[in-house]
Amino acid sequence: MGGRRKGNQSELVDNLIPTMEQFRQLERTMNLANTKIKELHQDNIELRKTIDELKATSEQQCEILRQLINDAESKFIVETARQDRLIKNITESPERVRDAIHRPQPVEINMPTFSGERPSDHPKKFLKEINTYFTHKKIADEDKILVIENCLQGKAAKWFGMIKDALPNEETFKGLFLKHFFSENTQWEIFIKCTEAGKRPIRTNYQEHFHYWMSELRFLDSPKLNEDQAINLIAKHFPIAIQAYIQTTQERKFIDIWEKLGELENNDRSDRQNIKTGGSGWRRPNNDQIPIAQINNRQPNYLQPEKKAMIKTICIDDELIDGEVEGSLNQDESKNEYRETLETEDQ
């Protein structure tokens, strides 16, 4: 009996071993299945998210397309109405249609800029251009400071950033702007520089030189010069013969003298060329043409000046050396002397 029982137990143990192995294998299979299910669930979530995004994008694109279609229909309706009206006008009034076709278009101007660093920058010129821009564009008063800020660049923009909070209106800006970029001292420096330029007469580019200094002097307020005074001051920059012509001519307008300087410069260039090639540089004077004789600083008798310049050259402790004026300038004394000169001439 005992032996049979042991045999049964051994057989039972042998049967349980494969069953446990199968159970473990089944458990591993279930774990793999659960993992796969989780992965599929995550993929499903991401897929739904992608579908939702595509759906939203599609709806947005459909809305954009719908809006474009509506805009196109509106434009088509407007264009059709315009064409119908044009056809009607052609039928009813050809003259009105012709006037409409040839109606001038508004002039487009660019917004001026100012940096204070470019040679072409001038404070007063900028203020004039910005006023023209305001008028043309019909800028509201409350928006002018904003437009001015957009016009300023470089050094001027940095300066504006420091005083921006103290600008209630456009007029305040103009005052501070001129005080900083075109002060009275700056203007006097320009005037004195123009006066000193006459110490060494120029030999070429008469028109360009005359135009540059007329542009500089016409903006001055300290001292204030009229056109005739500015012309006489700039005349001192030229050789003696041209000075005599400018100071004695009856043509006292900028454009007249500017054009005449072009003729004189061309004549002078021809004279120099003739001298180099061995020809004669002398031409008989007539009513329309005055020759320039500058050889060895000699001046023909008929070019002797008949009157003194309106503005005398500002020089302190002057000495005449080889026909050229050399001296030192004192700015304060120069200002006082020039003011006395203007008062005497006005009287």
UniProtKB/TrEMBL annotation:
Keywords: Coiled coil. Residues 269-288, 325-347 are annotated as: Disordered. Residues 23-75 form a coiled coil. Residues 332-347 have a biased composition (Basic and acidic residues). This is Retrotransposon gag domain-containing protein. It comes from Macrosiphum euphorbiae. The lineage of its organism: Eukaryota, Metazoa, Ecdysozoa, Arthropoda, Hexapoda.
